[in-house]
Amino acid sequence: MIEKIVKSLKKEREKPFCAYLYDLPALRQHVGHLIHTLPSECRLFYAIKANSDHTLLKTLAPLVHGFEVASLGEIEKVRAVDQNIPILFGGPGKTAEEMEGAINHGVSLFHVESVHELKLLNHIAGQKGTHTDILLRVNLRHSVPNAKLKMAGVPTQFGMDEADIPAAIELTVGLSNVRLRGFHFHAMSNNLESNAHAVFVDRCFETAKRWGDEWNLEISYLNVGGGFGINYLDIEDQFNWDDFTNRLEKILEKHRDVNWMILFESGRYITSSSGYYAVEVLDIKQNHGQTFCVVRGGSHHLRLPAAWKQSHPFTIIPIEKWVYPFERPTVNETPITVAGELCTPNDILARTIPVSSLRVGDILLFSYAGAYGWAISHHDFLSHPHPEQLYLDLDLIEKLESKCNKILSKTN
Ligand SMILES: *Cc1c(COP(=O)(O)O)cnc(C)c1O
Asked: Could you name the CATH architecture of 86-266?
């Protein structure tokens, strides 16, 4: 479907094709499924740093239970689409100005990352004559799944060492402008193992219960973070969400003695699959025995594969049109390396991927580009034009589909 739409859009454009495309109906359906299958005591927040695009936030606001943010800028982006939706505010190094702004914008929960932050937030809330609800962010000592990125279980700038939490709890008792409502455990990104993820949630319960019992705390929330992964290397073998929710049901059953609300704040898993990055092949060449395909675009638009030194999944959309009076560069049955238009050897989107046929003028369609794609890229390095940002919604999809059906029936 996306391929047909790209073909049809390409017909309307003179310049080499370069666009991000977002499949909004697919996004709604996906998030609807996640919300629908989570146990009733769970809430799903979207961590907007994965992609804080205005249209995506607007699409997600009526579906998710709220947004997770890590700066005042992100709070303002959320409030630009919804004045009332719940916001969770985390992230290290919160400034006094951000805390004040967050209180003004009616943030629901602060995730406090250090003892200094705890004192500063209490001070700011006191000056404003109010109190704030907080979760203490824990950097667990052990039992963090073996995910791609680890924020806990290892030394990082995130949260408080598990061993220092008791002292922080005692400190909150004496502070009159913060109210401890529970604990926050976001610990990893891109975890692909549903079982390990469920075991992690269980471990969060056990740890929080220990503290709850010891200090007789009135805990309302257990935030177990995000980190559900996307398998970029084998797209047929994705995180098994249904297996995870089945295991989660059993873990929640085991902890029915406490009546806590479980918060998830997922980024990647929410928006990754509905975003595409489509780029036209500008050149094909051989160098030192390898075949390079140079595209209109690159890591300044999609930095993720370069950052993780891996190949990003793509398919080829064949484009028949060729306007020049000379031969069209073509390769057949060859492994290709896809390079961007930047003047750095690091600008690689995929390495030695076998293709059956590829020509200059064809379009490569990268999938799973909706999270940590455009949002984390260095857009203006080398000052090439930005990609188009195209939002496919039902009306546009229907229009384009009927158009490409007409085109297809004409050519048949
Ligand atoms: C980035 C982040 C998330 C989202 O992580 P994903 O791996 O995209 O699910 C959630 N919580 C915090 C605190 C984060 O920093």
From this structure: Alpha-Beta Barrel (3.20)
Tell me if 272 CB under 6 Å of ligand 1. Answer: no
Ligand 1 site, residue 113, Cβ cutoff 6 A: no
Rg (CA), the chain: 24
pLDDT in tens, 78-103: 999 999 999 999 999 999 999 999 99
- Does residue 248 surpass a pLDDT of 90? yes
Residue of 67, 24, 28 lying closest to 47 (CA atoms): 67
Q: Phi, psi at residue 15, to the nearest 5°?
A: -75, 160
Give yes or no for residue 412 having a pLDDT over 50: no
Enumerate the domain spans of the chain. Answer: 2-21+273-411, 86-266
**In testing the pocket of ligand 1, which one of 265, 266, 273, 368 has its CB within 8 Å of the most ligand atoms?**
265
Q: How far is the CA of 51 from the centre of ligand 1 (A)?
A: 11
Task: Write the CB contacts of 259 (distance below 8 Å, at least 6 apart in sequence).
Answer: 41
**pTM of this prediction exceeds 0.70:** yes
The answer to whether the CB of 184 is under 6 A from ligand 1 is: no
Our answer on whether the CB atom of 225 is closer than 6 Å to any ligand 1 atom is yes
Q: Percent of the chain scored above 90 by pLDDT?
A: 89
Domain 2-21+273-411 part of CATH 2.40.37.10: yes
Where does the pLDDT of residue 212 fall: very low under 50, low under 70, confident under 90, or very high at 90 and above? very high
CA of 353 to the centre of ligand 1 (A): 30
- Integer Cα distance of 171 and 161 in angstroms: 15
